[in-house]
TrEMBL record:
SUPFAM superfamilies: PIN domain-like. InterPro entries: PIN-like_dom_sf (IPR029060), PIN_dom (IPR002716). It comes from the Bacteria. Residues 8-121 form the PIN domain. This is PIN domain-containing protein. It comes from Hypericibacter adhaerens. Coiled coil: none annotated. Pfam families: PIN (PF01850).
């Protein structure tokens, strides 16, 4: 079963390499692997946040993190924000709906016809603009992610 275009945020990418994260690592690494079979795009923002997080938290040396980023950007389409995306993000911010970083990510994804973001962040928001935000680690597992989670989740 195919699903609509989706994206993974920096947190999911981070857990995919963080072996100390236990079940979240297992699930995130499976999500990244299964994303290869779907219409997954990555935002430039997510991969740069990933690079900053793993190096600043000492999870890996910068040369290893850079190679992972290079691998991902050679596999997944990477989308970048435009001035129009900034304008859309500012509208969300001034309406009190999101912080700027969240709003920029969502505006960029929305502009690239991506309406599903996998993230455990976003302060409990389930939708921002036209982008549905789903926590893949939530239990019970979100039904909208059955394609990605059928092998990644635990045997419940």
């Amino acid at each position: 079963m195919a699903i609509d275009r989706f994206s993974l945020d920096a947190g999911i990418l981070f857990y995919a390499i963080d072996r100390s994260a236990g079940e979240k690592h297992r699930m995130a690494s499976q999500l990244v692997a299964r994303a290869l079979d779907g219409d997954c795009i990555l935002s430039l923002q997510a991969v740069t946040e990933f690079m900053a997080a793993v190096t600043q938290k000492g999870k890996m040396p910068s040369n290893e993190a850079a190679q992972i980023v290079r691998d991902w950007i050679s596999i997944f389409p990477v989308v970048s924000p435009t001035a129009a995306d900034l304008d859309a993000a500012l509208a969300l911010v001034t309406a009190g709906r999101a912080a700027l970083a969240e709003a920029m990510l969502v505006a960029c994804l929305q502009a690239h016809e991506c309406h599903l973001l996998l993230s455990e962040d976003f302060a409990g928001k389930s939708k921002l603009g036209q982008v549905e935000i789903v926590n893949p680690f939530a239990r019970p597992a979100p039904k909208s992610l059955a394609f990605l989670l059928e092998e990644a989740g635990s045997d419940e």
